[in-house]
Amino acid sequence: MKIRDIDLGERPVALAPMEDVTDPAFRLMCKRFGADMVYTEFVSADALVRSVSRTEQKLNISDEERPVAIQIYGRDTATMVEAARIVEQARPDILDLNFGCPVKRVAGKGAGAGMLQNVPLMLEITRAVACAVKLPVTVKTRLGWDENHKIIVDLAERLQDCGIAALTIHGRTRSQMYTGEADWTLIGEVKNNPRMHIPIIGNGDVTTPQRAAECFDRYGVDGVMIGRASFGRPWIFSEVKHYLATGEELAGLTPEWKLDVLRQQVEDSVSLLDERRGILHVRRHLAASPLFKGIPNFRETRIAMLRAETKEEVFRIFGEILPRLEESCHAHCPA
Predict the structure, then answer these.
(1) Backbone dihedral angles phi then psi of residue 36, each to the nearest 5 degrees
(2) What is the C-alpha radius of gyration for the chain, rounded to an integer number of angstroms?
(3) Helix (H/G/I), strand (E/B), else coil: 11
(4) Around Cβ 228, how many Cβ atoms within 10 Å?
(5) Which residues in 194-239 belong to E strands, given as ranges?
(6) How many whole angstroms separate alpha carbon 60 and alpha carbon 73?
(7) At residue 138, what are phi and psi to the nearest 5 degrees?
């Protein structure tokens, strides 16, 4: 799959843009585990134009994580164009336009997935940004606003006509938020539309290597994007890439190895921020990690782990968890 002249190889797997998740440390970790492309947290065009320092920091990217996309959102054409030109100075490989974020503080103000209620403005912004920068411009959006307005098949063609280089589709409507199951049938319909010639990347509920392979094989997408399934499991990219290449599950990822990965995540997060903020930041990964599922009588330990305020506390609890993890694996893992 190529996005203009950026070659991502056969059946690429990307890390989705996620607020308060895809910071530089996490992007690099996912890259090391095989993510073919990574995206920054989404960046507010308004805040960028106003030179808000915390927003400007989101433009910090490194050569080690390339190819990397910076994603912006907004609801005003002039502001989005100005923000796009600022982003271009940061030298990402791709500029992505967020027309898919469903959260109220974004979509409720007309940005993100809110654009699905104002398609003419969405197209105006897309066309203006694509003309304003030399970077490949891509779009990430959803199937439509709600069940009665699944407009993606027609919308995809119109976005392509605006000059975008690729389109990512999350298989839910804005009204669904992140509930229910992602519907890939319309993603497949977009991909199989003979009038579409740009790469189509599918997103939503890709939680296993087998599901990633099914999305490629059944719906014909050019790439898949993994979001929430990477929480507390950045090694999912290794699992998926191995399965796509061999048709077999990746062996040898022991509980001790996985716990070491989470330990490194804590270290990286603390190094990037500071101890207090780093621990707070990494908690959502610890809370969501599938590594701890299935450990009997884990509730109190889980609460203690998520209340820990220092690295030492977290690592001490990890040390207590390891024997229980190994015991649980011996009881449930196939011989």
Answers:
(1) -80, -25
(2) 20
(3) coil
(4) 16
(5) 200-203, 223-226
(6) 17
(7) -125, 170
Using CA of residue 274, residue 228, residue 230, residue 68, what is the dihedral sign?
A: negative
Q: 331 pLDDT exceeds 60?
A: no
For residues 310, 316, 321 and 323, what is the CA-based torsion angle, rounded to 10 degrees?
160
Between 332 and 135, residue with greater pLDDT: 135
pLDDT category at 329 given cuts 50, 70, 90 is low
Tokens of 251: 């062996």
Which residues are known catalytic residues? 101
CA 203 – CA 17 distance, rounded (Å)? 11
140 neighbors 116 (Cβ within 8 angstroms):
no
In this prediction, residue 327 has a pLDDT band, given cuts at 50, 70 and 90, of: confident
Residue 334: is its pLDDT beyond 70? no
Three-state secondary structure readout of 270-313: HHHCCHHHHHHHHHHHHHHCHHHCCCCCCHHHHHHHHHCCCHHH
pLDDT tens string 273-314: 999 999 999 999 999 999 998 888 899 999 999 999 999 999
Instruction: Please report, in angstroms and rounded to a whole number, the separation of the first and last CA atoms in the chain.
Output: 38
The chain-wide mean pLDDT, for the chain, equals 95
Average pLDDT of the segment spanning 250-263: 94
Q: Could you tell me if residue 282 is left (phi over 0), alpha (psi between -120 and 50 degrees) or otherwise beta? A: alpha
Select from 234, 270, 198 the least CA-distant residue to 18.
234
The whole-angstrom separation of Cα 143 and Cα 153 is 8
